[in-house]
Amino acid sequence: MSGARLSDVTELTLESAAELFGVLSTPVRLQIIRVLCDGEQSVTHLLAQIEASQSNMSRHLHVLHQSGMLTRRRDGHQIFYRLADASRGLLCRLVCSQHEPDGSVFAVPV
Q1: Where are the alpha helices (DSSP H) in 24-85?
Q2: Higher per-residue pLDDT: 90 or 107
Q3: Cross-strand partners of 90
Q4: Of 9, 25, 29, 91, which has the fewest CB atoms closer than 10 Å, so is most exposed?
Q5: Count of domains forming the chain
Q6: CA distance 35 to 50
Q7: Is residue 4 situated within a structural domain?
Q8: Residue 23 lies in a domain
Q9: What domain range includes position 58?
Q10: Claim: this prediction has a pTM higher than 0.85
Q11: Does 2 reside within a domain?
């Protein structure tokens, strides 16, 4: 969309963007993405990094996975999640950086 004007964006694109921002509308989901910007993590690791019950974490991971933000894989009894692509982390970083006094939030591998 480089160089495109907002008036040139289709209604379908705007609806998709609104759905994406809806998925990102909870602090826990943004925290999950922040942790996953460092790379693939197990649910156990995510629970250690983010204050949430296991059932709450599972619900948020499910929403993020269903939306296409995350991919997952199973290794034995462990489930590992990662960002589907780095652009999702960049979007979160851009939005969150607008609300930090120093403009920093988290690094996203490119």
Answers
A1: 27-36, 43-49, 54-66
A2: 90
A3: none
A4: 25
A5: 1
A6: 9
A7: no
A8: yes
A9: 11-97
A10: no
A11: no
